[in-house]
């Protein structure tokens, strides 16, 4: 087996870590995967520090005394768990079938450009169904089902669309929430729905940072203090954006 | 009637969330089942206010996480793929909304009350997940050594 160059090992580890972190993997899983990869490629020691916005990795080659350290910034994050599964499978393959470094790098590059698992229209349909069902689950009645689906669908489509053009996530969330509130209010005025609150809660669910909050608390409990606190801050910001958008409608109209 | 409605709404809502999070296709239905079971436990426990909301949430999220671990074993995928859609119905989105709504209407006392409850509920979800994450692997490992 040819000797692996430390630069290449570094690149593969960081690429795998970046792909996972950008697509919604938990902090500990990213650290775990990077450490395993480094071990499988014959590194003496690997120190990795992962936060939601950066990965710092320090590797030590066998028989050397000097570490090699690199940092990667993570600028945008979203939830595309399909990619997490792909990278996870790859790291498993590296461990079981001792995949060569070259192949691993090629595979990761391929994963990086795979499109999302579902086209946009499927996601919007999912958001429509989710909104309607949540409206019912939170004790809304059948009259609220239709307005909740419309508001939820429009809100989520708007969120996806505006995310492409507005780099600040806060504003796309605020915009989506504003229109959700507006549609719900109009539906009530037109006499289509009964309870404004239930319609809005249902429709807002696809945007709500529930998983972010839970992951934040979980990271804190697991001792990843920095990630826990920053994820919590991100969740608060999202909740604040949604709240502001809705509040704007409720207060002004 | 109410039971049947709870079953299908929670199933569709959780499976739909799986799609929003781009989980692989074969994980959508299992995610929906996780969410459904979690919601039924939560509703069953908190429905007639027999149990506290926080306790019901912790219990439901523990079961969701346990099922997710089993699915993760079967499909060889990370646990988060299943648990993420499974815990969605438990997530206090409604609580967060109500808190915000009270804040906007200048009712700070109600907002603090609702906000604390929301925080405790998300803590309960995390507690359930962490507990299952520690216990289930130990059980699975001990079974393997017995064989």
From TrEMBL, chain A:
The keyword ATP-binding does not apply. InterPro entries: ThrE-like_N, ThrE_Dicarb/AminoAcid_Exp. GO terms for biological process: succinate transport. The chain crosses the membrane at residues 118-139, 145-162, 174-193, 199-217, 229-251. Coiled coil: none annotated. The keyword Secreted does not apply. It holds the Pfam family ThrE. It is a multi-pass membrane protein. Residues 12-250 form the Threonine/serine exporter-like N-terminal domain. Its main location: membrane. It comes from the Bacteria. One of its GO terms (molecular function) is transmembrane transporter activity. It is found in: Cell membrane. Belongs to the ThrE exporter (TC 2.A.79) family. This is Threonine/serine exporter family protein. The lineage of its organism: Bacteria, Bacillati, Bacillota, Bacilli, Bacillales.
UniProtKB/TrEMBL annotation, chain B:
Pfam families: ThrE_2. PANTHER family: SUCCINATE TRANSPORTER SUBUNIT YJJB-RELATED, UPF0442 PROTEIN YJJB-RELATED. GO terms for cellular component: plasma membrane. GO terms for biological process: succinate transport. It comes from Fictibacillus marinisediminis. Residues 7-134 form the Threonine/Serine exporter ThrE domain. This is Threonine/serine exporter family protein. InterPro entries: ThrE_2 (IPR024528), ThrE_Dicarb/AminoAcid_Exp (IPR050539). The chain crosses the membrane at residues 6-23, 28-47, 53-72, 79-97, 117-140. Belongs to the ThrE exporter (TC 2.A.79) family. The keyword DNA damage does not apply. It is a multi-pass membrane protein. The keyword Transmembrane helix applies. Keywords: Cell inner membrane, Cell membrane, Membrane, Transmembrane, Transmembrane helix. It is found in: Cell membrane.
């Amino acid at each position: 087996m040819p000797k692996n160059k430390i630069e290449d090992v570094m690149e593969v580890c960081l690429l795998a870590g970046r792909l996972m972190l950008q697509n919604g993997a938990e902090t500990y899983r990213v650290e775990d995967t990077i450490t395993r990869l480094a071990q499988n490629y014959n590194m003496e020691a690997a120190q990795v520090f992962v936060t939601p916005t950066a990965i710092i990795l320090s590797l030590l080659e066998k028989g050397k005394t000097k570490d090699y350290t690199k940092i990667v910034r993570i600028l945008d994050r979203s939830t595309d768990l399909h990619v997490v599964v792909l990278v996870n499978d790859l790291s498993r393959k590296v461990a079981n079938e001792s995949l060569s470094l070259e192949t691993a790098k090629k595979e990761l590059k391929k994963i990086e450009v795979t499109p999302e698992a579902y086209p946009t229209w499927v996601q919007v349909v999912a958001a429509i169904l989710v909104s309607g069902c949540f409206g019912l689950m939170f004790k809304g009645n059948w009259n609220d089902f239709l307005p909740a689906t419309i508001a939820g669908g429009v809100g989520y489509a708007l969120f996806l669309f505006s995310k492409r053009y507005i780099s600040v996530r806060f504003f796309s969330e605020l915009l989506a929430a504003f229109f959700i509130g507006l549609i719900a209010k109009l539906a009530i005025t037109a006499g289509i729905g009964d309870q404004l609150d239930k319609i809005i809660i249902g429709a807002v669910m696809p945007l709500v940072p529930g998983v972010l909050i839970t992951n934040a608390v979980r990271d804190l409990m697991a001792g990843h203090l920095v990630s826990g606190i920053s994820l919590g801050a991100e969740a608060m910001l999202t909740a604040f954006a949604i709240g502001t958008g809705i509040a704007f409608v409720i207060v002004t109209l | 009637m109410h039971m049947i409605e709870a079953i299908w709404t929670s199933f569709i809502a959780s499976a739909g969330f799986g799609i929003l999070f781009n989980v692989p296709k074969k994980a959508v239905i299992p995610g929906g089942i996780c969410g459904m079971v979690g919601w039924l436990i939560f509703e069953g426990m908190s429905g007639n206010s027999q149990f506290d909301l926080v306790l019901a949430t912790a219990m439901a999220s523990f079961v969701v996480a346990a099922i997710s671990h089993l699915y993760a074993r079967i499909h060889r995928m990370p646990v988060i793929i299943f648990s993420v859609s499974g815990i969605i119905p438990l997530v206090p989105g409604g609580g967060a909304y109500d808190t915000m709504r009270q804040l906007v209407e200048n009712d700070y006392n109600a907002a603090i009350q609702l906000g604390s409850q929301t925080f405790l509920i998300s803590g309960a979800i995390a507690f359930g997940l962490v507990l299952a994450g520690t216990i289930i692997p130990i059980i699975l490992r001990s079974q393997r050594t017995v064989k």
